[in-house]
Amino acid sequence: MDESGSDAGGFNASQVRAELARLLASSDFAGARAHQRLLVHLVERTLEGDTAALKESMVAIDVFNRPAQRFDPAADSIVRVEARRLRQRLEQHYRDAGRDAALRIELPKGAYQPRFVPVRLSTDDPRTRAQELAQRGHYFLRVGHETGHRKALSRYQAAVAVDPTLADAHVGIARAWLKLVNTNIEPPLPGIDHALDSAHAALKLQPGQADALALCAQLEQRFRYDWPTAEALFQRAIEAAPVSPEVRHAHAFALMLRRAYAEAEAELVVARRLDPLNLGLRAHEALLHLYRREWDLAQETLEALLDLSPDNVLGLALAANVHWLRGDAEAALAGYRAVAQQHPNLSIGAAGCAMVQAATGRHTDADETLAALRARFQGRYLPPYQLAMVEAARGRRDEAISLLTRAIDERDPNAVCLPVDPCFDPIATDDRLQALVQRVLGIR
């Protein structure tokens, strides 16, 4: 079965993986690392049609690290014992916290191939209606862009109105607000406050939910610049769901923003092993190389990403940035123009064009590009961080520092990148810039 969504017992792969992620993040699986690893292995191998990997001996080797040459199932019953315990854990979960799930992952007795079973629920039940709305929210959030993000937020809010105890819907509201802010559709304030309120509401309902913990951690770091609180939340999320690619991915990105490159790389390796075709992971792997100033590796990683998804906006923007950092101004300009043309509702394409134009002495062109950008974004949030990139490229230190200060004060979602962003290398020795870096790192 592939990522396009082939059937798995009437469900597509993305639906099964969504239920798997929900299970891993649930309190019933918190800290149960062996059962998390076993469940991920069994589900993923089933989705991929790799029935050979579901044999007892292969499970013992791949999941429980038994030696291939010496494993004797007659003498070592670990797979049978843990499979029985996993089956009991799944049954208990679906009797209690997961009783309203529309899809259940079951492990039949005497087998290691899980079944993906639909559950018929009464449409008159408020919980069922709320979950249906939340599922629609998940779909719209994956659709992306402004329409998708706004529809997702609306469906999650409707789900909470029907059933305020549905933690998944509160997490969805927080994610939708974060998407709206990160894409500059809504200003950071009060958008981030709404996201934090919803994430904390989810944690009150399910204190051990890994998704909510990781989301709170991201919000604390990126917008409150509170790394100690964020890292404590990340550790709780990892403890609750150590084999969740989403949690590992979020932690990796947080670490790279703090220049903890080796630790970030280790987390990316874990996340990529769990979810090898995740495009966001590939983009952040390229970003890690970029932050390390490894231009060749960044470009190679981006080429692989764009081979899979030619219109990936983050991949296109990063590829243009790598061209610029490698000294190929014309390729960078062409790349940023492509981003601006394909994604006119995002400011990075035009801001990138203005940055390259300013740095190469085409100041009139840069001014015209910025004027058109400001006119197009009239009434919408235009990130001061991106404008600071242009001023830094132009050599205007005072203007760049002023815009960066505004970005931090306004909680511009880009501001957290300041400690690692190569675009500000030309003014890195300025004491005022270093003071701003310390603010973003949370160093008082």
Largest sheet descriptor: 2 strands, antiparallel
Proportion of beta-strand residues: under 5%
Instruction: Give the neighbour order of strands across the main sheet.
Output: 1-2
Q: What is the rounded Rg?
A: 23 Å
Terminal CA distance reads 51 Å
Given as residue ranges, the uncertain stretches (5+ residues, pLDDT < 50) are 1-7
List keywords for this structure.
single chain; 444 residues; mainly alpha; Serine Threonine Protein Phosphatase 5, Tetratricopeptide repeat; two-stranded antiparallel ribbon; two-stranded antiparallel sheet; 4 strands; 66% helix; globular; disordered N terminus
Topology overview:
Blueprint: E1 7-8, E2 11-12, H1 13-25, H2 33-47, H3 56-62, H4 78-95, E3 103-106, E4 115-118, H5 126-143, H6 145-162, H7 167-182, H8 188-205, H9 210-224, H10 227-240, H11 245-257, H12 261-274, H13 279-291, H14 295-308, H15 313-325, H16 329-342, H17 348-359, H18 363-376, H19 384-394, H20 397-410, H21 431-440
Antiparallel strand pairs: 1-2, 3-4
Characterise the protein shown here.
- A two-stranded antiparallel ribbon has the order 1-2.
- It is mostly helical and 444 residues long.
- It has 21 helices and four strands.
- Among the domains are: 7-118; 126-217, Alpha Horseshoe (Serine Threonine Protein Phosphatase 5, Tetratricopeptide repeat), CATH 1.25.40.
- α6 (145-162) packs antiparallel against α7 (167-182), α9 (210-224) packs antiparallel against α10 (227-240) and α9 (210-224) packs parallel to α11.
